[in-house]
From TrEMBL:
Lineage: Bacteria, Bacillati, Bacillota, Bacilli, Bacillales
Any Pfam family hit: DUF1697
Name the record gives this protein: Uncharacterized protein (DUF1697 family)
Species of the source: Siminovitchia thermophila
InterPro entries referenced in this protein's UniProt entry, alphabetically: DUF1697
UniProt-listed Gene3D superfamilies: bacterial protein sp0830 like, SP0830-like domains
Recorded superkingdom: Bacteria
Length: 181
């Protein structure tokens, strides 16, 4: 089965530095197959047919601790999980000079539509949608600083998600589909 591991908080602002080539070797050493990394922020596509997502996540968190000395949260999503998110992601959403659009991948303990009630959403400027596994958010760049979503950083909820922009999310999906064929 094809999965992606989304690592939270690596190679950001010079902190939690992880070499992607070494990380790929770590994944392979613990039995992940067809391992592909995408950009430096912790997106690793791989296959594993014998373990559950929870087992894989635990194993990968352990190997990262062993090999890098870092306590990093690892969110694992299957190709089916990712496909459901992609089906809900509006094609018109971009991450460019005019629009900021993100996918906030949720840890299981906050993965419920009630998560929207914990966000500061300004409906006149924020477009926010829950889908199983994620919150989708888009805003005109000119309004980013006015968004209530900026208040999310540093909260307990923020620690239970990992964010990718829509361009990165689409590329991860493309790589997962390539691994599938």
């Amino acid at each position: 089965m094809i999965h992606v591991a989304l690592l939270r908080g690596i190679n950001v602002g010079g902190k939690n530095k992880v070499n992607m080539k070494v990380l790929k070797q770590s994944f392979e050493r613990v039995g992940m197959k067809a391992v592909v990394t995408y950009i430096n922020t912790g997106n690793i596509i791989f296959t594993n047919d014998s373990l559950s997502k929870a087992e894989i996540s635990h194993m990968l968190e352990e190997v990262i601790q062993e090999d890098f000395g870092l306590s990093i949260k690892v969110l694992v999503r299957s190709l089916d999980d990712f496909s459901m998110i992609m089906d809900s992601l509006p094609e018109s959403w971009k991450n460019d000079q005019h629009m900021k659009s993100d996918v906030m991948f949720l840890w299981d303990d906050v993965d419920d539509e009630s998560v929207l009630g914990k966000l500061v959403i300004k409906p006149e400027i924020d477009t926010v949608q829950y889908v199983p596994g994620a919150v989708l958010w888009s805003i005109d760049r000119k309004n980013v600083t006015k968004s209530g979503m900026t208040k999310l950083v540093g909260t307990n909820l923020y620690k239970k998600m990992t964010v990718r922009n829509v361009n990165t999310t689409r590329k991860i999906y493309e790589l997962m589909l390539t691994t599938h064929s």
